[in-house]
Every structure is written in structure tokens, then in C-alpha cells.
Amino acid sequence: MSQSDRAKAFADLHKPGSPVVLYNMWDAGSAAAVAKAGASALATGSWSVAVAQGYADGEDLPMELLFQIAGRITATTELPVSVDFEGGYATDPEELSLNIKRLLATGAVGLNFEDRVVGGEGLHDTASQVARIKAIRATADATGIPLYINARTDLFLQSKPEAHASLIDDALARAEAYTKAGASGFFVPGLTEPDLIKQICEQVSLPVNVLCLDTSADITPLAALGVARISFGPAPYRTAMKTLTAQAAQHY
Questions:
Q1: What is the CA radius of gyration of the chain?
Q2: Which residue among 35, 51, 166, 236 is least packed, with the fewest CB closer than 10 Å?
Q3: How far apart are alpha carbons 186 and 229 in whole angstroms?
Q4: Helix 126-143 with 164-181: angle, nearest 10 deg
Q5: pTM for this one?
Q6: Mind listing the pLDDT tens digit for each residue in 48-91?
Q7: Residue 67 DSSP code
Q8: pLDDT digits over 115-138, tens only?
Q9: Which of helix, strand or coil describes residue 239?
Q10: 90-122: buried (b, 16+ CB within 10 Å) or exposed (e) per residue?
């Protein structure tokens, strides 16, 4: 398939109630392992990719190295690949556009794009984030690739669970704005209360992505809430490294 075809196929996997499951990986080797397990698509997690290379999360990993890793993953699989691009390594929409062109050149067909201020505090205001999403969409459209923009809000990650209910209206407002700007999906990491997840799924027109940090969890209940995408974030890397350490310890 062409890159454009893979992008379309990736978007089609996002079905409310029958979600695409992304067991996040961090390099070509882990991507091959996940693909062998039967995955229909692949996605990196920024924390895992960074830590696997000895860097911290939060765009500490050099962008050049991220592109190299993404390129090696897409070169070794026919599956659609989405890259966790954090804040796009740029605040200015024009600079962001240049970075998106280079991301697309790796063969990626999707990205996670978050609204937290990387390296700063809080979230970008909605208007600023909308301008950034519009820049991504325009850049992708100019290449003819229907890039899947998974618009992530960090509202819930940056607050305590007991405050999440009070943030739903803000999340819905951001979802609506991001939708109009050209986002393809809406990601709400940190939100775990079933009733609140269901509310988001029912009121957001975009496919909703939730984060599951338990690699052994039964995801059936999440699917029943109407989510269209389930990610595992850093959990697979942590589980894999824990296993590796335990196996190595037997020989010391």
C-alpha cells in the first residue's frame, strides 16, 4: 500500500465500541514483535522511545533521532505507523509545519499531538492549539496524505482524579475546537472514570482514544464505553524491561 492508503486504512480502524488497540512500541525491534503478535497498526510512545535511547520524555530526545527511529520502523513493516510527536518540537505554526513535512517523510501516517506546553507549565490556550492543528492539517493535505492527527488534551493528566468531572466541559470545548481545526481523533490520557469516559465518547464527534497502563487488563469494558482507540503508552516498555531485568538477574 502507498503511504496515503495506509493512512486511510489506519483511520478506518478507529471504530467506537470496537477500538483499535495500540500496544505502544519504541523501535523497529519492538515494532516487529508487536506486529508478529497480530497488531493491525503500530504506534510509538514518546516516553518509551526517549527512555530506550537514554533520554527523558518531553522532547529531550533529539528530533533527528526520533525521525531516524520512525524511519527504521516504517521501513520494516507494512502496517500503518503512528508517531507520538509530543508538541511537534515547535510552538510556532510555521516551524511546526516544517517538522510535520519531515515526519511525513519517515513514512508515518499518524501522530499524537498534545496541548501541554512542553518544557513549560499548563496547556496552550485553545486558540493557539487550534492554529497549530490547522498548520499540521494544511501541511499534510498539501502532500496528499490524510495524516491522522490524534489531538491529545492533557487536562486530565495535569489534574487529580477528583477534579476530572469539573474539567469535562473544558475538554468538550477543546474537542470541538480541535475537530473544526482538522483533528482526526481526540485523546484523553489520565481520564479513567468510566462514566466520564462514556460522556466524552457520547459528546465528541471524533473517535476517542483512552490510555490503559495495565498491560494485562481486560479492555472489553473500555470498548463498551464507546472508545475507538486504546493505547498502552509506556506500560509495554516498563513490562518488557522488568522481564528483562528479572531474566538477567538469574545469571548474576
A1: 17
A2: 166
A3: 10
A4: 40
A5: 0.97
A6: 999 999 999 999 999 999 999 999 999 999 999 999 999 999 99
A7: H
A8: 999 999 999 999 999 999 999 999
A9: helix
A10: beebeebbebbeebbebbbbbbbbbbbebeeee
Q: Which grid cell is 137?
A: 492539517
Place of cell 509530543: 86
Q: Which of 207, 146, 152, 157 is nearest to 174 (CA)?
A: 152
d(CA 166, CA 158): 13
Distance CA 164, CA 236 (A): 26
Q: Where are the beta strands (DSSP E) in the chain?
A: 20-22, 42-43, 81-84, 110-114, 148-152, 185-187, 208-211, 229-231
Q: How far is residue 1 from each of residues 8, 67, 136, 139, 172, measured CA to CA in Å?
A: 10, 21, 23, 21, 35
What would the grid cell of residue 146 be?
A: 490524510
